[in-house]
Amino acid sequence: MFSDKEKLRYSRQTILSEFGMEGQQLLKQSSVLVVGAGGLGGPVLSYLAGAGVGKIGIVDFDKVELSNLHRQVHFTESQLGKNKALAAKENLALLNPDIETVAYPIAIRSKNAENIIADYDLVIDGSDNFPTRYLLNDACYFLAKPLIYGAIHQWEGQISVFNHVNADGDLGPNYRDLFPYPPPVDQIPNCAEGGVLGVLPGIIGSLQAVEAIKVLLSKSCLSGKLLIYDAMETTFTTLNIKANDSNPLSGDSPTIEELLDYELHCGISVTDDISFVNVQDLKAFLSEKKCQVIDVREEIEYKEDHIAALNIPLSNLSNRLQEINKNGPTLFICQSGKRSIQAIEILKKADYENLYNLTGGMNAIRANNILL
Least buried of 6, 16, 36, 117, by fewest C-beta within 10 Å? Predict the structure, then answer.
């Protein structure tokens, strides 16, 4: 049943012949988990809350930073430094107090993903990294949950619906039918390095919200299709996606039968040539080794959030080798642990020794509330 207030709130969509009060009731009974409350997650959260989805979960361990605000317009300067999941929950309560919101101010990992996802009807991927994308895809496949995928880079965005049971009862494609395995680490850009048009995630996130609503209402959606938006050319291109026989998750000879260590799966692998430091051991390591610490993120990233370290961006590393201890020990950090590995590989070729990499980088430091 709906109160008079709710009937008025949703009146503009319930008059749609394809929607009606029946559709509104479906949304009220539905639950959606949004992983990532940033550029993509912001419009998703706002529009699903506005539409009246009964329960919305928000997963994000990160905090609001000034450089977020050009694209994450659901936050304000008054929320700088706050956890994004908690800040988003506050905002949704102001937008629509009649729905339930649950904040998970933590990093989603293999050890907790299935427990979190199990409570929701549908998952929306608002993340910005490959480990999380593959984790969500695989977890949703194992739990038989539809997944709304979205991704952005510079002027282009993508969207699709994965792990969705179509009207004929067949299971649609998943992310690994399109990309069976992650790309090499050195081919993975991020927003700080490659940039992104601020309004682009708003467009893609809004499209994700549309697809989520259509899935919840059992309407036709982008299952089996990849929609590509080019903001520079103002074009939409739709590609068909089919089941991939070599899909390691759902192909003819699947090799993935449980959730993996997705950092390792996406190219961060322990080798004999690289020594890794876990974030839980960081304090003890720094105290014992008394090593040089190098942060290889871009300067703007370092200024926003850092520990005591020398900032030498990976893009300028080769020109500043003279500033790095030749024989170490030297610890390298970045945002997620990928660029720091690239830095180590460069230095190894220049005969540097005693090089260490912080697993998970600044993301791991903040996710585990490590104070240095």
Answer: 16
CB 172 within 8 A of CB 162: yes
Which CATH number is associated with domain 4-265?
A: 3.40.50.720
Residues 270-299: tens digit of each pLDDT: 444 567 888 877 888 888 778 899 999 998
CA 205 to chain centroid: 12
**Full-model pTM:** 0.76
Helices (H), the chain: 4-9, 11-14, 20-28, 41-51, 84-95, 113-117, 130-143, 175-178, 191-194, 200-216, 262-265, 282-289, 299-304, 339-349, 361-367
Element housing 225 (H / E): strand 225-230
Average pLDDT, the chain: 90
Residues whose CB falls within 8 Å of the CB of residue 60, separated by 6 or more in sequence, listed in order: 35, 36, 37, 38, 41, 83, 84, 85, 88, 104, 105
Q: Which of 161, 184, 155 is nearest to 174 (CA)?
A: 161
* CA-to-CA separations, 49 to 85, 207, 331, in angstroms, rounded: 14, 15, 44
Q: Which CATH number fits domain 275-367: 1.10.3720.10, 3.30.413.10, 3.40.800.20, 3.40.250.10?
A: 3.40.250.10
Domain boundaries, given as residue ranges, for the chain: 4-265, 275-367
**CB of 134 within 8 A of CB of 141?**
no
pLDDT above 70: percentage of residues in the chain: 93
